Amino acid sequence: MEKEWLLETSQMTKQYGKHKAVDRVNLHVTQGAIYGLIGRNGAGKTTILRMISGLASPTQGDYTIFGKASGQAAMERTRVGALIEEPGIYPDMTARQNLKVKCLALGVRREGYIEELLQTVGLADTGKKKASNFSLGMRQRLGIALALVGDPDLLILDEPINGLDPQGFVEVRETLMKLNKEKHITIVISSHILEELSKFATHYGIIHNGTLLEELTREDLLEKCCERIELKTNDTGRACTVIETMGIRNYQVKDEYTIHIFERLEDSGDITMALAKADVKVLGIAVSSESLEEYFLNLTGGGRS
Amino acid sequence: MMRLIKMELYRLVHAISTRVMIIVVAGVAVLMSFALRMDLNMMEAEQKTPGQETGTESQVPAESFASGFSDGWASAEEGSTEDDFTFGVTAQADESWIGNDMKVGDILMSELQGCLLVVFIAIFVPLFVNAEQKRGYIKNIAGQIPRREMLALSKLPAVAVQVFILFVVFMIANLVSDAIFFRGRIVLKFTGALFRTLGMQYVLHAAWGCLIALFTMVTRSTAFAMTTGILLASGIVEMLIMYLNRVICSLLPSAEQFNLMRYTLNYATEAMTVQSTLWQIGGFLTLALVYIAASAVIAGIVYRKRDVR
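^ Those are the sequences you sent over. The predicted structure of the assembly is below.
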């Protein structure tokens, strides 16, 4: 059975003149995920988010949201809260007044609703302080609160952690994790800093020059980036038997010739000897590791450019 | 739609620009009264000096702040009193006021007809309308509004309210300052005709507001809308309209009597007086409604079709 996506793009393209800002992107977002869209500045992240939040139309391709094609999804998009590019707040208003503006627009009249939202994002004690006097972190959290008006099921956040100090980042991250865990809100969040997103995103889409290079889960990413012995052999079946007799259990057969071993990283010499004794040819063995940033840079060709 | 109008009104009430607008407009209304007082003093002094010419009316010094200028084209060509109007931001002191009682309605109308309030509309309407765009708020809301054109349409009632506030503050400040500067000479006579004229002037000014809001929404630029609005109010753009009119007349000999100027808000604002007939008022009302409707339709289409930035 085909998997049901909460959001799925199909060959989605956005072209400005001759420049393709987004080129045939196929994103897949599941219900309950925190989907991190990673790419350098100008990679096309904001354009993708603008299209899926209904602010711009794709030049080619399409997307479905809550099971509806973009053209028929006007009502479904009312379930999408967005914070695109900037928090979108009125600086001469208080946090409460800013939220009141959006509540009026969406017809939200529930008693205590604004206080509840302020509580959720940790701005309940801002009182009559104007938004112009807020720190960047507070503004971002107010932006998130604005996106939460109307109780959306999908939250689209464009670089909400950009420019935040470590404390601000922790505040925003905890807010988002709480929303995801307690209110089951699916979140699509963009950033150019993989290291930061890796602390809470469950799925990743890596975009470069408007093209989606790779989609992977948190587990995939950690596996790709963790330290391991990469063993190349002509007979993975017999090699597995040998390494199991050595007491190694944490390993994975990646393909016909490759095994990744995640423990006893200092014993590569012993492994080679044991395989040789068992007459298993070793084509190559090396300890490798890649930081998240290195992985991202290698994928996007960052080191070369 | 009602929700969005409520949102815009809430925003209007809480915007700092609204408070600034009230203070500035009230202040300028007082200055205008003071300038009128000075002008009348000068005219009286001129009358007492033998051998000096006096015109039927003169412009108060206050006009200079927004480059008012007279244009004799319409009157020279048409020769009718209806077309004998002055372009630009002016307030005219009537010679008959010298040493005589002054009707409050005449003073108010002289300032309204001079497009002074239109200059304020050109300044404060773009500030209000474009705040949503400038602050990025529109990007947070546009996706959640199923019919995006409503975002544009809901602004127009709010602009009408903004113009109403501006209008009322200007009137009150004018009345109070006139009562002070022309103590003992001012005649507070509020007739039905005066109310009708003020009401029609309000509708015309609301149409100005909608037109300037349209410029703001289409260009997304406060500076452009302000500049265009001020140029329109000061009559500079009217020269282009005159030129266009001449081109039309030269291309279509049958349209020799056609006067494009009559279809401008400048003309209607200038020509709408207490003496206007019901027929003329009907024409001005139609003109204002056409401008309002056209602004609404164009802004709605632009918002619906264009990507939100």
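The mean pLDDT of chain A is 85. Chain A is about 30% helix and 25% strand.

Shout if you want it in another format.
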